[in-house]
Amino acid sequence: MSQEYAITYTKIMPGEPSGQISDLLEDWGFKSAEDAIREFNKKPLTPEYIRKELWVKDTDTKIKKLLKEERYSGT
Questions:
Q1: Are 6 and 27 in contact (CB under 8 A)?
Q2: What is the pLDDT along the chain (75 residues), one digit of tens a residue?
Q3: Could you state, in order of their start, the residue ranges of all structural domains in the chain?
């Protein structure tokens, strides 16, 4: 079983019905969990980019699973 990891963002987007747009792909290029987690931890959250998620995808079945999520707290 081969896996890939991705980091996605949710961004505040005036004009969108929900006021935000999610699943903005940062990168599907991570082959190891360690590299993906390291990069995820380095990615900042801001008042504009309010949520980030770390996903894993089985490359055979294409099934995705959310591993980690962080939200902007404003502090």
A1: yes
A2: 789 999 999 999 888 788 888 887 766 788 899 999 999 999 999 999 999 999 999 888 888 999 999 999 875
A3: 3-71
